[in-house]
Amino acid sequence: MKRRKNIITVAIDSPAAAGAGTQAQLIAKNYNLFYLDTGKIYRYIGKLKLSDKKKFSYNLIQKKINTLKLSNLKNKELLSNEVALSASKIARDKKIRNIVHKFQQKCAYDPPKRYKGSVLDGRDIITVQVKDAMFKFYITASLKERAKRRFKEYQNLNNKINYSDVLKSLRNRDKSDKERKHGPLKKTKDSILINTTKLSKKACFKKLKAIIDKKLNI
Ligand code: C5P
User: Fold this and answer.
1) For the chain, what percent of residues have pLDDT higher than 70?
2) What's the CA gap between 170 and 14, in Å, rounded?
3) Range of 175's domain?
4) In a 3-state reduction of DSSP, which class is residue 79?
């Protein structure tokens, strides 16, 4: 695989709704990096399964990933709780993780030329996908705070789901994502822990930026 030299690589792992996506986007914008929300790929496959269980196969997934465009990942339907749960289920499958792996590698190590590097967020980015990332952050927040944030997002999307179901769903996904055999979510020793429970988006980004600027000598 082609690897661009001297690029900035940022790897972020986090449980759902901890604010990693927001921070990854802020980092991408500030340092002109290519951003990939890897959870969206699993959601895309999870949705594929929900749409047609009979047609769902490794062959179909491979085909879809081969022709996957970033615009496919912007589909609002991928944001539902139903799709999130389906994503978490199919994400346990090693064969599916391997199919997604290649796509992520290309984004991380060979991002489009106009970018100075890449930032990926997900569950196994530091542990599997971009093990040698220049920056490694583990972003988390309490389950209650995450449920509160996700519930608000669902409300804004006019998604009719109540708070306790959001909490239950996040708890189940946390368990499945942390306890699965392949690519489980865990914090590595060499990653920096950022707890956003009591941090505003701005305060959190300030913290991350200070760490990145220091290493980049900005
Ligand atoms: O990040 P998001 O909540 O959109 O991810 C949906 C699901 O995709 C997660 O619950 C997880 O099971 C799976 N996922 C994964 N590995 C990643 C990113 C997401 O297994 N790198």
Assistant:
1) 100
2) 12
3) 8-199
4) helix
Residue 172 forms part of a structural domain: yes
> Which atom number of ligand 1 is nearest to the Cα of residue 40?
4
Q: How far apart are CA 204 and CA 23, in angstroms?
A: 8
pLDDT tens track for 85-117: 999 999 999 999 999 999 999 999 999 999 999
**Other CB atoms within 10 A of residue 11 CB:** 28
Closest residue (by CA) to atom 3 of ligand 1? 16
Q: How many helices (H) and strands (E) does the chain have?
A: 8, 5
Global pTM value: 0.97
Neighbours of 65 (CB within 10 A): 17
Does the pLDDT of residue 211 top 90, yes or no?
Answer: yes
The total number of structural domains that make up the chain? 1
Residue 124: CB within 6 Å of ligand 1? yes
